[in-house]
Amino acid sequence: NFIVHREGPEATPFLPNVIVSSNPFIRPENFGYTPDLVQKGLDWESRHVANNKLPWPEVKRTKNPLWEAGYHFWVTTPKSRHTVHSSWTVTDWNWIWSQNFGDPYRMDKRQPGVND
Question: What is the C-alpha to C-alpha distance for residues 55 and 112, in angstroms, rounded to an integer?
Fold first, then answer.
């Protein structure tokens, strides 16, 4: 087993979708999308298929083109339906964070719990 991390395709200040590893046995096909090309800015489809592997010292020197364009925040929108087979929403705060209508004080008694 190899320890590998992959940055997200958009929600990262670093090179989008980069595979962070220095392991020589990890040899992804980048389909012609080099790290320099990705940093110049690509459409969302191209960012998703770019398979570039870089070691962490090189990754931390990269910049996401969206951040260069002035976007410095991202939104995660997890949905409770994606946690059906996990215990992620067992904790009330995680359940609240995963929806739009969280109510930690249960002011709305129509809800089945602190959310939904």
Answer: 46
d(CA 59, CA 94): 30
Q: What pLDDT does 23 receive?
A: 92
Nearest 5°: phi and psi at 19? -95, 120
What is residue 54's predicted lDDT score, i.e. its pLDDT? 92
pLDDT tens digits, one per residue of 53-108? 999 999 999 988 888 888 877 666 666 666 666 666 677 877 777 777 788 887 87
With contact defined as beta carbons under 8 Å apart, do 65 and 57 qualify?
A: no
pLDDT of residue 79: 60
Three-state DSSP class for 71?
Answer: coil
Q: Residue 89 to residues 49, 77, 92: CA-CA distances in angstroms?
A: 31, 14, 7
Backbone angles phi, psi at 81, to 5 degrees: -65, -20
Tokens of 113: 């719990």
Q: Between vectors from CA 88 to CA 83 and to CA 78, what angle results, nearest 5°?
A: 55
Q: Across the beta sheet with 19-20, what order do the strands follow?
A: 5-6, 19-20, 53-54
